[in-house]
């Protein structure tokens, strides 16, 4: 029970990496609040996670984000852990084919959305010497030939640098800020790219360890950063990608 008595918030916690993370934090003693736009999916997720509540919220909406933090403080009186997980993946297109609205949508969710939650959470994390974990991507570390998801890559790269900025900015408050960069993980977001056996074999072979990741493997990395095991770790960028980014 590494997180006994802790209150954790996981944005985009109704499925994929967010759901697995929320479940692992809960199993380690935390009370977990998850957010999602889809109420039905949120309700279903909460039933499967012990000690969890769901608060509907659109990360693009500042008032929704403020309401989530307000409800957490009213109900629990504090916040210890923020996991900035919510994100979207665009259609694969070359830069000159991307509509500006598509570009803005990805940055609004993957970058400005993380800003919104962090901004609202900071005053409360200052009181608990809390921990922030940003979920970026190994696509934020390097360019991949044929990947062609420029807005996604830009948003994830920016989140990596923001992790370091926030770690320095709030170190005097004893708030730790760290970042995880997954490779391809088996989630609803990646399923469209893994439709055939040939697709799966190709993607497995892109990772030196011979397979794509599982959501729980990212959740365990979040647990490390959220717990006292990482009490002297801030500004760290942890790549959890089966070796994909070192090729």
UniProtKB/TrEMBL annotation:
Domain of life: Archaea
Record InterPro entries: NAD(P)-bd_dom_sf, Sc_DH/Rdtase_CS, SDR_fam
Pfam families given in the database record: adh_short_C2
NCBIfam families found in the cross-reference section: PRK07231.1, PRK12826.1-2
PANTHER family xrefs: DEHYDROGENASE/REDUCTASE (SDR FAMILY) MEMBER 4, DEHYDROGENASE_REDUCTASE 4
Family under the similarity heading: Belongs to the short-chain dehydrogenases/reductases (SDR) family.
Record-given protein name: Short-chain dehydrogenase
Organism: Nitrosopumilus cobalaminigenes
């Amino acid at each position: 029970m590494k997180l006994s008595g802790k209150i954790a918030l996981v944005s985009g916690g109704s499925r994929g990496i967010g759901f697995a993370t929320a479940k692992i934090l809960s199993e380690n003693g935390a009370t977990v609040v998850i957010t999602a736009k889809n109420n039905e999916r949120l309700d279903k997720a909460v039933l499967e996670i012990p000690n969890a509540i769901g608060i509907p919220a659109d990360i693009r909406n500042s008032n929704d984000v403020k309401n989530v933090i307000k409800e957490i403080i009213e109900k629990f009186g504090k916040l210890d852990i923020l996991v900035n997980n919510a994100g979207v993946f665009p259609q694969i297109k070359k830069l000159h084919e991307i509509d500006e609205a598509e570009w803005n949508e990805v940055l609004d969710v993957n970058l400005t959305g993380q800003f919104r939650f962090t901004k609202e959470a900071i005053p409360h994390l200052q009181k608990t010497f809390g921990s922030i974990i940003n979920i970026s991507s190994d696509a934020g570390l390097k360019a991949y030939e044929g990947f062609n998801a420029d807005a996604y890559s830009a948003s994830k790269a920016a989140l990596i640098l923001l992790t370091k900025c926030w770690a320095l900015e709030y170190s005097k408050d004893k708030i730790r800020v760290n970042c995880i960069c997954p490779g391809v993980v088996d989630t609803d977001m990646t399923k469209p790219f893994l439709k055939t056996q040939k697709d799966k074999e190709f993607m497995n072979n892109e990772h030196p360890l011979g397979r794509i990741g599982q959501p729980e493997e990212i959740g365990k990395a979040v647990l490390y950063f959220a717990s006292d095991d990482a009490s002297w770790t801030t500004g760290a960028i942890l790549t959890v990608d089966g070796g994909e980014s070192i090729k």
